[in-house]
Specification:
The complex is a heterodimer of chains A (562) and B (193). Chain A is an alpha/beta fold and 562 residues long. Chain A has 3 domains: 173 residues, Thiamin diphosphate (ThDP)-binding fold, Pyr/PP domains (Rossmann fold, 3-Layer(aba) Sandwich), CATH 3.40.50.970; 161 residues, TPP-binding domain (Rossmann fold); 177 residues, Rossmann fold, CATH 3.40.50.970. A 6-stranded parallel beta sheet of chain A has the order 3-2-4-5-7-6, with helices on both faces. Chain A has a 6-stranded parallel beta sheet with strand order 15-14-16-17-19-18, sandwiched between helices. A 5-stranded parallel beta sheet of chain A has the order 10-9-11-12-13, with helices on both faces. In chain A, helix 2 links the parallel strand 2 and strand 3. Chain B is elongated and about 55 Å long. Chain B has 7 helices and 9 strands, in the order βαββααββαββαββαα. Chain B folds into 2 domains: 76 residues, ACT domain (Alpha-Beta Plaits, 2-Layer Sandwich); 105 residues, ACT-like. Chain A, domain 2 (Alpha-Beta Plaits). The chains are: A alpha/beta (562), B alpha+beta (193).
Chain lengths: 562, 193
């Protein structure tokens, strides 16, 4: 039905028609007209964040954990620029998001007006697409187009910039109009001849591995992945972002490879005669030196983005399509198999290179905290992380058993992602247990969102693995910069327990090994947010490690092999 | 993969909207591709423009250009037509010194190259030439003896041939020869003073 409304109303109604029930945002001058109509749309829950980066990461966490498109609001100028880190994070990890920003009035655009910034220009490289809307009449169509682009194909963030006076202008909105974007195609099935060739390679191979990437999670293909792996008995290695696409307590689960991945996973990937890549972009953290990466194997690459094919690693067959659909195409052509000797070999690799042995220490170790958390929650929580040592320990020592239960900034590597992404995950999954594993460094980049958490009484549990260090920096300076430690120690950290209490959040400090378990149980029992400050060993490097740009031959299994 | 720098011709149909060129230019910049030439103009379809790029880069990198371009939402269609049977043209306006003493020599060269004289003054004349890159380069080289005051060149525009002739397509030279032969027919009438 075509209706005359003001721009702000069109925005809200189009969002509701897209099934949006929550937005994360913070107002400012240029976007005030939109906030001016929010009271008319009570179904649209607005969560007031404390910084726009938090809005973007919360929308991202909501999106990753629910599969729906997350939405963020911000004002013009600094509000919009504060979104950029969150947009770039979502872009790198293919997360569907729509950001709506206010812009100065149309007449003022280009005049260096107060709080003006060219945000469509600034966000070109970090969005899948963006719009500057110059007429209220265009709003409805553009919003529906933006959601369509955000969630289809290889998903990504889309930004819509709306001048202040477009929010207040009367316009037409036809909610029945179909989105049509010439030349924008959404791959579904792969070409049959390629599928047949791929199936032939799979049936012929003696030492196949599946490399399951984020694409498996995005296309919700975890059942299909499990089915094909079991049918042909193919070991499954995941990428860092592919974690939780395959149950890690499954006999075929073979960890994750690369810079800090399990040694046995890197070795299995190297020794395989066939790599079946489902939705991973052969990231440099896995590949290292391209010329020495997995040279013994044929490679099948399944990806929805044709530009990823042969981008870094040359492959023998490429299947462009939606992972779920393509696996379903392959399944009937793949013969049952046992791969007994190969699986036995992988078991031996796991035994010979256990990778996850926790060193002995009188102090609490990050690895232990994660391991305990995994045991106590039975691998059943949604885990968020920031970036650094705590992230690697979380990925290594938590045994993920539920699909899509791991949220981490893989591509951009955004410290601070851990605090707001958990907000989005908890809002999207009110009945689930969310643990955010944080470093003391990243936590302080977005800790202002504790106010948002307290305000909404979101029962998120934060575990700070606090070593008063930028741990990964310390590790790199120790290994690659001749122990010239610079700017890696945080001597001015706050008392995190008091900090939590200042926000009205329960805080627990754990300094003794034997208190770890008790604190986790106590946090789980508490009906509200909890911050647990785990005081961990100061210097404890993450192993295994393959230094950047190297190959599995340079793999350092533990501190004694350096 | 070789690091040999090569040129490729890409033809794209794009939405005729503000900012499209910036999106494309931004993509070239951040992926490290160089644009040797770029032409844009309205296409035969309403709301769509056609762009022809000649891009330069290591073979491996350049091959990925069209795949990356295709991801831009505003690009409707993109084809790498380097290896296809194509007709291409460049247009140049060349202002060259020509006084009463040299004018006849300049005009003689102009005649041989079948160019149009689009402006004539006491001390100079301006000619319009279209054709392949080599033909234009050769003309400019020949005119240098008289003193070239200004050279304005468009980028390449290219289209697939209507009739595909099987046989060897000998890269730049073969195509340029074709282009120069074809040049005898209509386009050379089109310039006007």
């Amino acid at each position: 039905m075509v209706e005359n409304k003001i721009g702000s109303q069109i925005v809200c109604e189009a969002l509701l028609n897209e099934g949006v029930d929550v937005v994360f945002g913070i107002p400012g001058g240029a976007i005030l007209p939109l906030y001016g109509v929010l009271s008319q749309y009570e179904e649209l829950r607005h969560i007031l964040v404390r910084h726009e980066q938090g809005a973007a990461h919360a929308a991202d966490g909501y999106s990753r954990s629910t599969g729906k498109v997350g939405v963020a609001f911000a004002t013009s100028g600094p509000g919009a620029t504060n979104l950029i880190t969150g947009l770039a994070t979502a872009m790198m990890d293919s997360v569907p998001m729509v950001a709506i920003t206010g812009q100065v009035g149309r007449a003022a655009i280009g005049s260096d007006a107060f709080q003006e910034t060219d945000i469509t220009g600034a966000t070109l490289p970090v969005t899948k697409h963006n719009y500057l809307v110059m007429k209220a009449d265009d709003l409805g169509e553009i919003i529906h187009e933006a959601f369509y682009i955000a969630r289809t194909g290889r998903p990504g963030p889309v930004l819509i910039d709306i001048p202040r006076d477009v929010f207040t202008e009367l316009g037409n909105y036809d909610s029945n109009k179909q989105v049509s974007i010439p030349g924008y195609t959404v791959p579904k099935n792969a070409e049959n001849k390629d599928v047949q060739y791929a199936a032939k390679l799979i049936n012929k191979s003696n030492k196949p591995v599946i490399l399951a990437g984020h694409g498996v999670i995005i296309s919700k293909a975890w059942e299909e992945l499990k089915f094909i792996a079991e049918k042909a008995q193919i070991p499954v290695i995941t990428t860092l972002l592919g974690i939780s696409s395959f149950p890690e307590n499954h006999i075929l689960s073979t960890g994750w490879p690369g810079m800090h991945g399990m040694a046995y996973a890197s070795l299995a990937l190297d020794q395989a005669d066939l790599i079946i890549n489902f939705g991973s972009r052969f990231d440099d953290r896995i590949v290292g030196d391209v010329s020495r990466f997995a040279q013994r194997s044929k490679k099948i690459h399944v990806d929805i983005d044709p530009a990823e094919i042969n981008k870094s690693v040359r492959v023998d067959v490429s299947l462009v399509g939606n992972i779920k659909d393509v696996i379903n195409q392959i399944i009937p052509l793949v013969e049952k198999n046992t791969h007994t000797s190969w699986i036995k070999h992988i078991e031996k690799l796991k035994n010979d290179h256990p990778s996850l042995e926790i060193p002995k220490s009188d102090h609490i170790l990050g690895q232990e905290v994660v391991k305990k958390l995994s045991d106590i929650t039975n691998g059943d929580a949604i885990i968020c992380s920031g970036v650094g040592q705590h992230q690697m320990w979380a990925a290594q020592h938590y045994t993920f058993t539920n699909p899509n239960s791991w949220l981490s900034s893989g591509g951009l590597g955004t410290m601070g992602y851990e605090v707001p992404s958990a907000i989005g995950a908890q809002v999207g999954n009110p009945d689930k247990l969310i643990w955010s594993i944080c470093g003391d460094g990243g936590f302080q980049m977005t800790l202002m969102e504790l106010a948002t958490i307290a305000e909404n009484n979101l029962p998120i549990k934060y575990a700070i693995l606090n070593n008063n260090h930028l741990g990964m920096i310390t590790q790199w300076q120790g290994l690659f910069y001749e122990k010239d430690y610079q700017a890696e120690t945080y001597t001015g950290n706050p008392d995190f327990v008091k900090l939590a209490e200042a926000y009205g959040i329960k805080g627990i400090r754990v300094s003794e090994k034997d208190q770890v378990e008790k604190a986790i149980i106590e946090a789980n029992k508490h009906n509200g947010p909890v911050l647990v400050d785990f005081v961990i060993e100061k210097v404890d490097d993450v192993y295994p490690m393959i230094p950047a740009g190297q190959s599995v031959n340079e793999l350092i299994e533990g501190p004694n092999n350096v | 993969m070789s690091n040999h720098i090569e040129q490729r011709t890409i033809s794209a149909l794009v939405q005729d909207k503000p900012g499209v060129l910036a999106r494309i230019a931004g993509l070239f910049r951040r992926r490290g591709f160089n644009i040797a030439s770029l032409t844009v103009g309205r296409s035969e379809q309403e709301g769509l423009s056609r762009m022809t790029f000649v891009v330069e880069g290591a073979q491996e990198a350049v091959l990925k250009v069209s795949a990356q371009l295709d991801k831009l939402v505003d690009i409707v269609d993109v084809k790498d037509i380097t290896e296809s049977n194509i007709v291409w043209r460049e247009l140049a306006l060349i202002k060259v010194n020509a006084n009463s003493a040299t004018r006849s020599k300049v005009l003689e060269i102009a005649n041989i190259f079948r160019v149009n004289i689009v402006d004539i003054g006491v001390e100079s004349l301006t000619m319009e030439i279209s054709g392949g890159k080599q033909k234009i380069d050769s003309l400019i080289e020949l005119l240098k003896q008289f003193g070239v005051k200004e050279t304005l060149r468009t980028g390449r525009i290219a289209t697939l041939r209507g009739t595909l002739i099987e046989g060897e397509e000998d890269g730049v030279f073969q195509s340029e020869k074709d282009n120069d032969n074809n040049f005898i027919t209509p386009t050379y009438e089109s310039g006007s003073v």
